[in-house]
Design a protein that fits this description.
By secondary structure, this protein is mainly alpha-helical. It has 4 helices and no strands. Helix content is 75%, strand content 0%.
Length: 120
Amino acid sequence: MPRRSLMSTLALVAVLSVPASSGCTVVKPLVNSVAYAPTQVMDRLDSTPKHEGDDLPTPVAVAAFVVLFPLNYAYWTVHGTIAGLFSGVVNDLNLVTGNGTMDRTLETMLEPMKTNAKPD
């Protein structure tokens, strides 16, 4: 029984210390789960489309859009969340070791594959 009590106490300490010690590990995946998919949609709307002769006919393209847009949106949401988790962990490690800056942390918050490492 004492061992279980010790493990419970350690688990409680770990859970309570997470918000204070791991800002990016928690915040960056949450931010990117919400913001990455709309960012990708806007990036694609801003780019100039290239129309080629072998493109899908318009009615088929509209039918494909209805199916593919939600799938892509779900993919971008998952991609932003998971990539944000990994880069958030790296951001926190960079801050602890002095290899990252808070300015870079804020600059790269909406970019799930970027970290806060100091530029060389």
